[in-house]
């Protein structure tokens, strides 16, 4: 049995990687399981959506409750890992036995905040040891990534740490990231198993989801409401510079006051997924006709500009990796960016 524990220092795409690596293993004829032993109650959701997505992606038959059995507060988890360590290990193994039966490989999705949060770090050490798992740490790209914390974690994990994967790297920084961080981590005794680019289309949300969050009304081209919004732009420039301004970002939601038909028309001349109109005024018929001609949905919202922008930013920040289309595209990205052969070799596959 091969067990891989995927953890991260911050939100860095653990679920997507589990799904993507799992699909690659399935393609090689392996029987793959998935396990998310602990979901922290402070996280703001129960984690069921991500677990259900991986369950479907890997064709698993176990229920979400079996795949993610423990929902604990940080304080409760700390107690389990310290005062009740033996009981926790026994319960963990019982839960793991249900998801690992008949499997060749089990992917475990761990907690984030490795190295920064003592409880999450202790959970990584304890779970990896109890289930004899190898560990991969996913890092979110920053030009100032520090190898120090990972080096400390690596010393504690020893041979269990296979290496790190750097995710969400801007395309313009890919070559620098590959050269610079590969060398930095190598000096620290840690392998870089992959440098994965940031793909905006994988981070977007549908126009429909955006409208739902904003409690908006789609008044044109509702049939195109499944289009993916990747960026936002605020229509606050002068009419003369409107088109040039809106050309700066593609596949965007353009947020414009409902009384600014000039800016609405300017946005429609560029790559726009939807117009989000704020205020009480109804859009001019000329704008509606142009939107329908361009097949761009229009979303009317009651709140003002500032509140609307905050709402869109919030939903984009929490954009979930929950569609087959995104997974298929991500598999292609992994094929080019993750050293699958090295990873599988380290796992003994």
Neighbour order of strands in the largest sheet: 2-5-1-6-7-8
CATH architectural grouping of the largest domain? 3-Layer(aba) Sandwich
Report the uncertain regions. Answer: none
Q: How large is the share of residues in beta strands?
A: 15-25%
Overall structural class, as computed from helix and strand content, comes to alpha/beta
* Straight-line N-to-C gap: 10 Å
Descriptive account of the structure:
- The strands form four sheets. Strands 2-5-1-6-7-8 form a six-stranded parallel beta sheet, with helices on both faces. A five-stranded mixed beta sheet has the order 10-15-14-13-12, sandwiched between helices.
- Helices cover 45% and strands 21% of the residues.
- It starts with a strand and ends with a helix.
- With 349 residues, the protein is α/β, with parallel strands linked by helices.
- It contains 15 helices and 15 strands.
- The longest helix is centred in the first third of the chain and has 16 residues, at 85-100.
- 42% of the residues are buried.
- The chain is elongated, with a radius of gyration of 23 Å.
- The protein has two domains: 2-199 and 321-347, 3-Layer(aba) Sandwich (Rossmann fold); 205-317, HprK N-terminal domain-like (Udp-n-acetylmuramoylalanyl-d-glutamate--2,6- Diaminopimelate Ligase, Chain: A, domain 1, 3-Layer(aba) Sandwich).
- It has helices at residues 14-27, 48-57, 64-67, 74-81, 85-100, 118-130, 147-157, 174-187, 207-214, 242-246, 261-268, 285-294, 305-317, 324-337, 340-347, and strands spanning 2-8, 32-35, 38-40, 70-72, 105-109, 134-140, 161-169, 192-197, 205-206, 217-220, 228-229, 231-234, 252-257, 272-278, 298-301.
